[in-house]
Write a structure and sequence with these properties.
This protein is mainly α. It is globular, with a radius of gyration of 19 Å. The protein is built from 13 helices and no strands. Helix 3 runs antiparallel to helix 5, helix 7 runs antiparallel to helix 9 and helix 7 packs antiparallel against helix 13. The longest helix has 22 residues. The chain starts with a helix and ends with a helix.
Length: 206
Amino acid sequence: MVFAVNFLNRDLSLLTPYYSYWYLIALFAWRYITPFIARYPEALPISLIISLLVGYHQEIDNQFALSRIIGFYPFYLAGHLTSSNNLQSFLQKRKLLHKIAAAVIILTCFIISSKLSLQELVLDDLLFFPYLSSDKIIVRIQIILACLTVFTGLAVLTPQKKVKFLSQWGRNSLAIYVLHRYLPFFAEPFLKAQNNQLSILIAISA
């Protein structure tokens, strides 16, 4: 908050989270409500439907990160419902062909995203803010499907053995998340001078 107000000329607000810190509010809410919601087998599809429909309610916006808490909740709930035993079983059943297919899918997603025109895709779409028009629900569906595709591909490619560097960073992921937002502030002038493909590649690498 201090950084945003003093260095980025943002207005002081106690209701609207600054940049990526919305996630800390969301994480608190998700961890509090999930033990109750996860008891019901239909919780995941219902949360997905609500995530799509909440965009039509303009009053549910970024105050207290409410639009994003509801919009992104299906991803958190899906991760919560995925038991470690099921995940280990999935990893053990992988074959080389599956890994090649996953790599091809991720590469295809990168190529398509770099070639498609992004003129109709605005930041509000990616942040799951209220829809700017009624047909924006299609964009949200596409974003969710793209995320699920990439997540599945990465799960297939993830090595079963621990990678010392990645495992150590993974254990400290919350601290990395809290501090990572400052890097784009300094990288923004450089990224603006680059083409869209290079910016996407840098984002994937990060």
